[in-house]
Amino acid sequence: MTEFKSNFLNLMSSRGYIHQCSDEAGLDAAATDGIVTAYIGYDCTAKSLHVGNLISIMMLRKLQQAGGKPIVLMGGGTTKVGDPSGKDESRQLLTEDDIEANKKSIQKVFEKFLTFGDGPTDAIMLDNDVWLSELNYISFLRDYGRHFSVNRMLSFDSVKLRLDREQPLSFLEFNYMILQAYDFLELYRRHGCTLQMGGSDQWGNIINGIELGRRTDQAQLYALTTELLTTSSGAKMGKTAQGAVWLDADMLSAWEYWQFWRNTEDSDVGRFLKLFTECPLDEVARLEQLEGAELNEAKKILATQATALVHGEEAAQDCLKTATETFEAGGTSQNLPTIDMSAESLKMGIGILEAFVMAGLASSNSEARRLVQGGGAKLNDATVSDIKLQITPEHAVNDGTIKLSSGKKKHVLLKPV
RNA sequence: GGAGGGAUGCCCGAGUGGCUAAAGGGGACGGGCUGUAAACCCGUUGGCUAUGCCUACGUUGGUUCGAAUCCAACUCCCUCCA
Question: How does residue A90 score in pLDDT terms, banded at 50, 70 and 90?
Fold first, then answer.
């Protein structure tokens, strides 16, 4: 590991964020001499960011901790174009209304990680739609288009991938990298932003921005990327059965979020503690050394700290408590996800299959039936063997709730009201 | 505008008249082993008021006792030419 002079790069390096840097020495010097202003751009393609975006959010947080100024750039404009990087086919174009709604919803997350304000190192949030939608086609081409060589653009991975696979790449998407390069220049001019960070898939786009800045403004800009995050077994981070691991509590509960981290693979624990928690490095080193089942302690710390950042300390502690009660004491915690049901219909008797669907543990009666037949369905911790079983008020235990489980990990309480 | 190729289940992909709710793989879910891990092994994987019924191979019609498979028109996509 290289030793840096600046707090910023030392922090980034020691916690494993750095994959590639365009000019380590130059950036190190800049970060030592003054406040570095850096930005990361976020697409507005979904209502919430997910775990895959988390590493970059953490980078902005670390930047601020190390005395830099973070800029969160919402891609209100670039989302209208669509980033071809890493996708082998075009996405459906989103409407402007959708983009606007997504943008509003995404913004909330950042307030948990960054301090916004007017001070020199306070974070600011911008939307590139402000300048991109103002552009005049001809003058833009003459002022900036001439700095881009199509020959070179064709060699970029994001483009090459499509061409090699003979997948379509529209001219619209082809322009994405130019717009992203222009963003960097615009942020340099408006806010003195000299560093763009992002995942390694953004490297080409970032370098384009650096080049453009040098050619038009003789600016010295920098790129810093992280490894694209995968688990040790190679799976992309952030995808689970239900879909992405969202950061928004409305889309994924704190409990599920905690469980996601709790189920981290052994070999990822140390790496994730460094990237996704504020756990001191010597403590991480100690936790990493744990063997076998003891490593579960480290996973709980990982889960609780990571959850605290997104959902708050209190929610994280609740999750830890719930998990301990449920998995270690083998009991039933009242903090498990609870679904209300009608007490009236319970009196009439509710079919076990219907109950599993109601609890969200199965998407159809047939799926619930298969779950029962496969021996994975439990009612109050007892395996259900009869698909015709009727649930009645007599099944309500522990405070009048009924516990349904799918497999060992997923539990839901039904509460008659 | 011309010539050719394509559209199949969550995804990839086989299937060219009945044996097809549709091979195979991936993913996912459940079980086993374990530590709420990984790897590995086994099972499941359209829906329903269920020994039956309904829906489904781009859309709409047609041929046929019978169509994912044959025919026609249409929609969308790709490649090459202009």
Answer: low
Q: Which residue has the tokens 């840097």?
A: A21
Which residues 6+ apart lie within 8 Å of A264 measured at CB?
A: A231, A272, A299, A302, A303
| Predicted TM-score of the model (pTM) | 0.87
- The predicted-structure confidence for A112-133, as pLDDT tens digits, reads as follows 999 999 999 999 999 999 999 9
Q: What is the predicted pLDDT for the residue at A91?
A: 53
Give nucleotides in strand B with any atom < 7 A to a protein C-beta: 28-32, 34-39, 43-50, 77-79
User: Strand B within 7 Å of which CB atoms in A 294-323?
Assistant: 295-296, 299, 323
A14 vs A35: CA distance, rounded Å: 20
ipTM: 0.84
What whole-number distance in Å separates Cα of residue A296 and Cα of residue A279? Answer: 16
Cβ-proximal residues to A166 (8 Å cutoff; 6+ apart), any chain = none
Band (pLDDT 50/70/90 cuts) for residue A349 is confident
The radius of gyration computed from the CA coordinates of chain A, to the nearest angstrom, equals 25
Nearest CA to A330 among A255, A408, A387, A264?
Answer: A408
CB proximity list for A107: less than 8 A, separation 6 or greater: A72, A74, A125
What CA–CA distance (Å, rounded) separates A207 from A204? 5
- What is the C-alpha separation between A158 and A203, in angstroms, rounded? 10
Tens-digit pLDDT profile for residues A239-263: 554 556 889 888 888 999 999 999 9
A328 Cβ neighbours under 8 A, 6+ residues apart: none
CA(A163)–C1'(B81) in Å? 20
**Both tokens of residue A281?**
């490095």
